[in-house]
Predict the 3D structure of the following.
Amino acid sequence: MAFITANWNPLGEAFYRKIELYEMGWSLRDGLKDCLVAAAPYGGPIGDARPQLEIYSSSGTNMASFPWKSGPVRQLGWTVCDDLLCIQEDGTVLIYDLFGAFKRHFSMGNEVVQNQMLEAKVFHSPYGTGVAIVTGASRFTLATNIDDLKLRRLPEVPGLQGAPSCWAVLTQDRQTKVLLANGADLYILDNTSCTPVTPPGLSPQACSIVNMAVSFSYKYLALFTDSGHLWMGSANLKDKLSEVDTKVRTPPKQMVWCRRPKSQQPSVVIMWDRLLLVAGERQHKYTLDEESVCVAELDGVRIVGGSRHELLQEVPSACQDIFKIASMAPGALLLEAHKEYDKSSQKADEYLREIKEQSVLGEAVRQCVEAAGYEHEPETQKTLLRAASFGKCFLSNYPPEPFVSMCRDLKVLNAVRDYTVGIPLTHTQYKQMTVQVLIDRLVYRKLYPLAIEICRYLKTPEYQGVSRVLKHWACAFCQTGVNFLDDMGPIMSGENQTLHSTVRTSYQRSMVTYLKNEMNRGDFFMTLRNQPVALSLYRQFCKHQEQDTLKDLFNQDDDHQELGNFYVKASYKEKKLEARLSLLQSAVDEYNKAKNEFAAKATEEEMKLLRFQRRLDEEKGEALLGLSLQETLHALLTSNFHKQAEQLYRDFRVPDKRYWWLKLTALAEKDDWEEMEKFAKSKKSPIGYLPFVEVCVKQHNKYEAKKYVSKVTPEQKVKAHLAIGDLEGAAEAAIDRRSEGEISTVLSRCSPTTDRALLERLNRARSTASKK
Amino acid sequence: MTVVVLIAIYREVKGWAGVLLCSTSGPMAHSVRRDAPELPDFSLLKRLARDQLIYLLEQLPGRKDLFIEADLMSPLDRIANVTTLKQHDVDKLYKVEYKPIVSTSDQLCFLIRPRIKTVKWICDVVNADKAFGRFRKYKIIFSPQKFYACENLLEEQGIFGDVTTDEWSFYLLPLDDDIISLELPEFFRDNFLEGDQRWVRTAGSALHLLHSVYGPFSKLYGIGRCSKMAYESWREQVEEGEQRARQAEIGNVFLIDRDVDLVTPLCSQVVYEGLVDDIFRIKCGCVEFGPDVTSSDKSIKVMLNSQDKVFNEIRNEHFSQVFGFLSQKARNLQTAYDKRSGMDIKQMKTFVSEELKGLKQEHRLLSLHIGASESMMKRKTKQDFQELLKTEHSLLEGFEIRECISYIEEHINRQVSMVESMRLLCLLSLTENGLLPKDYRSLKAQFLQSYGIDHLLTFSNLKQLGLLVEQQPGETLTVMESRVGKLVNDKTAGKLTDAFSSLAKKSNFRALGRRLNLVPKSDEEYDLRVPRDMAYIFSGAYIPLSCKLIEQVLERDGWTGLEEVTRMLNGHEFAVTAGSNGSDARVKTDSQRIILVMFLGGCTFSEISALRFLGREKGLKFIVVTTAITNSARLLESMLDNHA
């Protein structure tokens, strides 16, 4: 506590402090030397290429790493949604997600391909993430939003050869412009024109502007000249804020703005090899002991080095008020009072009384709460919040919300700042970014359990919170191509050692349960559509559990074929005929929509058949309902309803062959031989007469069978004779036909009791036949 | 007394032998290469399963009633008999029948498959108890593993806290020396039709179990999407677990998806074991022969495996050869009995005590198999089996397709058998790369008239699986592909082509047949007594695609040279060297010649016979691991959707 101001450095009216965020978990052989580094704002991830692309979290945990096999990368950058952009010499931009999975690529145009890129910048604006490139032909190409790619080639800059000495991208008046310096000349380049500009009050000693920096909000501009002067002013170049002589003439490696919102202090952080300068109205120098990279943030600058990750920022006024040595601000007194109270010292009362006398207790509490938000150390946060809570006891009408929400915010912030998560957000950034976005980022980092925990903790409405995360989680699972329902099984039973934590398990459980929730079902179905594996699984699940959901699912997909099948299946279960018919009608409609005429027609016929069966059941007391067409016909024929059978035969266009077979067997089964004979004579049998023989034999009536043998075609004669056991007849027929095969068949049916003469005749005939 | 009985039986046998003598007989024994390696001892798997089951039962101390899922009963029987269960405090045994229970026990144990339906029933049982205010302890043992959906259901039904759950990792049931089954008949439908991949992990775990007991494997080959996933699941499990250096007993593994070759399981089986399965249905290595076989009034259950000496010699034989063998066997038996005449008392005593038992056993088995053969013969001639086979062979060879279609039409019209009609339709579609639109419609319409409109859904399933489809005009696809191909880069276009071809589910049977020589020229005489290749299992008409692939890949040690074949089979092929000690010369000897073939989605006995033949030819030993033993009827029945 006593050392809280130890890292404070005064700079004019304000103080600056450098806080260590993380000790980096990476092991880089040569620090950041010779690395191309890009770090995303809002505590985002860090990318690093050449010759290997590596992606780390802010705490240096490796998230991806793979050898770079594509063309040489000249610039890295992060998009607003945490995708990594790798810009190659030829202007090809490759996009990877933060786990190093390739997403897509686009080109910055032919001009870049021809002339090669000299420099590139990735910038963020309200329209999204943009890329600006200057080519070997000294021309600028700009894409304001990479998700809606429109390449703009900016006008030529007079007199510019090669790359400009420095340049930056500005967003002004809803337009993206490029500000560039060519020696001492400064130009603003927009879509149509190139305008020379002069910063007001730039010291005349300079002959070249060597570096420039635009603030996070695009409001301020800083220019560094070869004379070592730093000019600070508004980005529209109308006002000058201040100018400082840094006395360093080497061009800096990096220059970024470092100011917090609402601060009156303009200040810029300039970095050389081993020197870091905070320049405002005054200057403060830090020495760097390792290669570092500065990342501009909304309220400060993050400095990423080989071993440490630090935050440099102006000490917020609330913290200044409280911790400044010998401060008599209300918050400072309240903190003191609480400290004494903890020691059970009466001095507590003295301090309190002093605050109360000035009636600034409310202000004191407010200060403590606010300051707690700016502190990174949980211990300091706690001390301040306890002091605030203590002060609140003596106030009757102090609204609880600020205190409560600060406690919540800090809990969330401490959780995401954790080493394993590695998102070092400040309270100011968090508020700017909103919880929604934070949740999205956690989801994107696949930190689903934490995201859910936060949603629950903050009581975010299900729809925006837990459900949304679960949905993403489910999708992520589906994308892995693994059957997630099943994958759950082993995980739950603790088989999968990689995911053994009970916390994770319980989340995964709810993730699947979520599938069954009505909530967002439409969305969920839509998502599932692109995941065939998951979709078929879900269908399986519904088949067992929720038939109606299944219908919705098919409906959503306009899968009329499956819907038709669904109705047909439902019709089986339906006992009442009317309901059954209406289900079948629905099926017909769906099949028609699915352009499956066959199924539609078949279903229509089924309906026709059902109606026919009902009528007959009612009129004649039959029990036909539910039988197939064939069974119905058979039943009718065996019950002597020949007229009705004929009708069915015509109505359903039953093939002749089928009808003959049916009638034949039905008559045989009834032993109605007379009718059979009539039938055989009615017209020429489409199935021939061998079936007549066979059917009779099957009914053990050889007498009747014999009647038809003569009508059988010559090819089938042998068979017919054999069927009635007439070996001699068969032999005659076979010998007549001189067919070796048939003679052999007859021979194989001979037994030792067969007539010798016949056998000899057959054998003779066979040898003649085989000689042929 | 004994002697009298003996003579009576002897007469009976002699009678049969007389009938049999007139049928063809020939040399049966195949020349076995002497260097064929010994198979590993798989009884260890049974022991492991039994020990774990006992451990699980003891987790619920005290007397309890055990409810067993119907299709787990036979496998369980092969692991632990009733006595063993009783020894571990199992009071009464019940079959799960989805009805309210009558048990009076205070502790109920359920041994089930991870199926929603069964879990739902258990929930009903527990909730009924609750409604009665009855308190019992419940334990559910899922075999071989539990699925999340099951536990979720327990939770949903509010009984998650009332039951304890466990897993009995009984993945593998050795059915014979060289057959191991996962006994998961639903695998085929779930995985290939419904796209439900839950069982893939099960398959991976089964492979992992084999790997940890009989591995480490040195080389894995495979083809098919599911195989690849099972392989990946296996690899993950291997990486997670610890490696033990041990002498490998199984060197190579071949994984194959059933849908890579759907033609083979749809062909009529004519090898003895396959035919017995087609006609009598072998369940869990056991068949029930009815009165027509036993020539008595009761049925007999017979275990069919290599322990049955008679069966072991005929199981892989073409059916036409079986009679000859059996008659020879009967004659030998007769001779053995004949030794009895002229024996003195002492010799007779030795004969009775030493040989008689064996002879009687053989006699019993012989009469059973003769009975079975006769019964099969009767059935097969009754339905004009020869004509059916002729049609099948025509389909395989691509001859006289119109005649085949008329035959199928008549088959449907006469309602010979629904499944058989469907089988022929599918075989026609698979071999012809789909039916002409006109035939497709008319045959389906006739089928529906014969067997009921509800098969409309079955047809939808068959179409989805590519078993029965309409011929697509060839160009449309390629045009679409090339159009899309222009829009996207090559890699994506490749993927799209994959997607299209799987969409079309072309069987490419003709092209595959030509490329791999699956259909031998029909004009050559095929001597079934001396099989010259695997085609003998289909009377010389067709070499099963699945087995041919295995042969080719083993011969080439990978897929090189088979690129065109794999393309026609929709790819997903792989060949990986897994073991680091592959160079070890000692390992090369025996384990390298033992090949584990895993069929995902089931395999037929005919395929096993073909592999046994291949093994004999090449001096290899094949171990077949399958999700279940299948045949055309089982495969098609799993496609049916004609009931609610």
Q: What stands out?
A: The first strand of chain B starts at residue 64 and ends at 68. The domain at 174-261+544-580+587-638 of chain B is CATH 3.40.50.1910 (Rossmann fold). Chain B has a mean pLDDT of 79.
